[in-house]
Automatic annotation (TrEMBL):
Its EC number is 3.4.24.-. The active site is at 208. It comes from Petrolisthes manimaculis. Residues 626-744 form the CUB domain. The lineage of its organism: Eukaryota, Metazoa, Ecdysozoa, Arthropoda, Crustacea. Its cofactor is Zn(2+). This is Metalloendopeptidase. Pfam families: Astacin, CUB. Residues 477-507 have a biased composition (Low complexity). Binds 1 zinc ion per subunit.
Length: 744
């Protein structure tokens, strides 16, 4: 690891820096590029720290019955036994089987099934322990949950007083949990199912009974990766094992709506989702605790041989029901929700708008208003036309305020809005409170998925959605624009693609461009015709703008013609520092305290090579306290210390940026600066930068740069109400700085 870094520094040092010839521009197109050249803006969303740092924000008044996710009431330990997947208790034998990775299935294991009673159908005896008071919420919910299973399957439940037999012992314990399957060896005198506080609903009871009859969680299935993405980073550490995948035999298709599926934020420690469905329109479906679904019922009926029993009882030798339909207790077909008819022969088309009235795909400019339904989890998939990016202006943004989550982090728990470009992979910044009120967000990609979670009845969201043209971008396939999209939706998709050949013959083909890919929140900038040979006489540019993140640039593949460095990539970062890369190098590895940069790719008219694939990773870690917006009040004095200031030698590196924000109309005076920064030529190793003009790239003309040891008074006063401070520390001998500022 260390060796790699040293090598990386060496390579960078060997490459000759060129002097600055780039015009600084912020979020506008660049006149120094010739027409037809590519320019792509990679833009980070403003962080919640930035938009939520005003102290004058009116506090939201809390008066709401906030729904508690039933997962939250589950303790992780019950009577000294570990809870498996949150609400499942395992016996020692089951633990052992899991550890030995023997098959632990939700289908076909006779051992764990309830046995037939006198009627020939499986019988589940049960009783209430004394903690379940007659007529209590728990007792009523248990009765409803049992009735729900009985009316949909051939399982029969019988209240019993005979404790000398395997049976379910319902208790009001801590949380909602159950063992999986019938455990007659471990519990010959009954096994417990806890319906604790907050668990007293029919759906949760149906879920726990699901475990008791042998069901695992839906997202533990072997095939779950085809349907969902698990965000392990957001799962509280003690619960990460709950998302383990298991070796299951899956006899029915994966069911997002299964009563056994976790919800999007189950076991989240920070309010961020822990599960995303790969198909964005299914996100709002997971976590159902209302009722059993067709597939839940089908699985139980298959497991317990209900269907063959019913066929026999109905005197039918075969099943006349189409698709997944089957003969039910009433001797007629039970059809999947998307079919009807006596033999399930008639398909039911899916509804045009999702039942929640919110989940939708937006492809034309429109205004989005959130429905007032509570307990909403919906997905708005915004897809701009080619060469356009969504621009979202929040005219209303009033969500529940941040709460303190685990690790004392402030998080958007009850209500949240998340904007994701690389859906469904990374879960990124979460907004709530009035974070985005009046804000406009310009996406850096063609598609943005809004993920809205609402549990507070007064929450309100309204946004104007428009599409902005990406400068210099021309669609690869000419389309017949949006005029066809008014009437029939089924025919438009074919009509747009067929016209491309006739129009492209008259116009010269578009020159190949640099492209941007996003995988897991990392941007990849890729040269034109990468892997073949890049074209001659081309330039393209990518620029990044952000309020908070640092970034890390790395070459995945880098192979440019070496002749006098005529073909090159030029990186421009803070204070006009540039770095020129050419040749065949695999070890570009560059870090900056701020995500703001410009990258230019320039080729001459001769010789070419394979090109490059460079990664640009924003570096934001939740606990990183050195990217911060600090709001100051009128007259306030503030001391800003770098990490490790006054602590002697510290090997740890730091890439930090702070924004001091004074009230509108005032300025910030830097009264004293104590610098303990080890000098380097051109301050290219460790440095401190100050800018008082709100210039994200800290241009050398208007910024101050320090890399030496001193103590000076009255350094500067800002032109605006903000002071930008960037700091980079790579070496142990740099011991930081202390800056004393005052609002004037
Ligand atoms: C809070 O809401 C409840 C039920 O909606 C209502 O009865 C109560 O008066 C409200 N309290 C306040 C302080 O507004
Ligand atoms: C660029 O590199 C990343 C990371 O290795 C990879 O996922 C991506 O597919 C590459 N892109 C191209 C066009 O090769």
């Amino acid at each position: 690891m260390e060796a790699l870094k040293v090598l990386a520094l060496l390579v960078v040092a060997l490459l000759s820096p060129v002097t600055s010839s780039i015009v600084y521009q912020d979020e506008t197109s660049d006149a120094t590029l010739s027409p037809g050249d590519d320019e792509v803006h990679v833009r980070q969303y403003p962080s919640p720290v930035t938009v939520n740092s005003r102290h004058d924000q009116p506090p939201l008044i809390v008066n709401d019955s906030l729904i508690t996710d039933f997962m939250e009431v589950n303790p992780l330990e019950v009577d000294g036994m570990e809870l498996f997947e949150g609400d499942i208790m395992l016996t020692k034998e089951q633990w052992r089987m899991l550890k030995e990775e023997r098959k632990f299935q939700n289908y076909g294991s006779e051992l764990y099934k309830w046995q037939p009673g006198p009627s020939g159908f499986p019988l589940v005896p049960y009783r209430f322990e004394s903690s379940v008071a007659a007529g209590s919420a728990a007792a009523n919910a248990i009765a409803a949950g049992i009735a729900h299973w009985e009316s949909n399957t051939c399982l029969q439940f019988e209240q019993t007083t005979n404790t000398a037999q395997p049976h379910l012992r319902f208790i009001v314990g801590s949380g909602c949990w159950s063992y999986i399957g019938r455990l007659f060896q471990n519990f010959p005198n009954g096994q417990q199912v806890s319906i604790g506080r907050g668990c007293e609903t029919m759906g949760i009871v149906a879920h726990e009974i699901g475990h008791a009859i042998g069901f695992n969680h839906e997202q533990s299935r072997s095939d779950r990766d085809d349907y969902v993405v698990i965000h392990f980073d957001n799962i509280r550490s003690s619960a990460s094992g709950n998302f383990n995948q298991r070796n299951t035999i899956d006899v029915v298709t994966y069911d997002y709506e299964s009563i056994m599926h976790y919800s999007t934020k189950a076991f989240s420690f920070n309010g961020f989702p822990t599960i995303s469905t790969i198909d964005s329109s299914k996100n709002h479906l997971i976590g159902n605790r209302d009722a059993l679904t067709f597939n839940d019922i089908l699985l139980a009926n298959l497991m317990y041989g209900c269907i063959t029993s019913w066929e026999d009882a109905c005197g039918m030798s075969s099943d006349s029901c189409e698709g997944e339909g089957y003969i039910g207790a009433s001797c007629s077909c039970v059809c999947p929700p998307d079919t009807t008819g006596s033999n399930c022969e008639t398909p039911i088309p899916p509804p045009a708008v999702a039942e929640d009235g919110c989940t939708q795909t937006i492809t034309t400019e429109t205004t989005f208003t959130s429905p007032s339904t509570n307990g909403l989890s919906c997905t708005v998939d915004i897809q701009a036309p080619e060469c356009h990016t969504p621009v979202i202006t929040f005219t209303q943004f009033r969500l529940y305020q941040k709460v303190t989550c685990e690790n004392n982090q402030a998080c958007c728990y009850y209500d949240s809005l998340e904007l994701r470009e690389d859906y469904p992979n990374t879960a990124s910044t979460m907004y709530c409170s009035t974070d985005l009120a009046g804000q406009t967000i310009t996406a850096g990609s063609q598609r943005v998925v809004l993920f809205y979670f609402k549990r507070w009845s007064s929450a309100l969201l309204e946004a104007d959605i428009t599409f902005a043209q990406v400068p210099g971008c021309e669609p690869a396939t000419p389309t017949t624009t949006t005029s066809t999209s008014t009437t029939s939706t089924s025919t438009t998709s074919t009509s747009t693609t067929t016209t491309s050949t006739s129009t492209s013959t008259t116009e010269p083909p578009t020159p190949p461009k640099c492209t941007i890919e996003v995988h897991n929140g990392v941007f990849y900038w890729i040269s034109p015709l990468f892997d073949e040979n890049y074209p001659n006489g081309r330039t393209c540019r990518v620029s990044g703008y952000s309020n908070t993140a640092a970034f890390h640039l790395k070459s995945i593949v880098f192979d440019l013609d070496t002749t006098d460095c005529q073909d090159y990539v030029l990186l421009t970062t803070l204070f006009g520092k540039t770095q020129k890369y050419c040749g065949d190098i695999s070890k570009i590895n560059f870090k900056s305290p701020s995500f703001n940069f410009i990258l230019d790719f320039v080729t001459n008219d001769m010789d070419n090579s394979m090109g490059f694939n460079i990664s640009l990773a924003p570096r934001i870690t939740p606990n990183q306290d050195c990217h911060e917006v600090i709001t100051l009040e009128a007259g306030q004095e503030y001391t800003l210390d770098s990490p490790f200031f006054g602590q002697g030698k510290q090997k740890k590196k730091a890439y930090c940026e702070w924004r001091l924000v004074a009230p509108e109309g005032s300025t910030i005076q830097v009264k004293q600066l104590i610098s303990r920064i080890k000098p380097s030529s051109d301050c290219n190793k460790d440095f401190l930068l100050l800018n008082g003009n709100m210039e994200k790239l800290y241009p050398s003309e208007t910024s101050l740069q320090y890399c030496s040891v001193f103590n000076t008074m009255d350094i500067m006063t800002t032109e605006t109400n903000m002071l930008y401070v960037a700091y980079q520390k790579k070496r142990a001998k740099t011991k930081g700085f202390r800056l004393k500022a005052m609002v004037v």
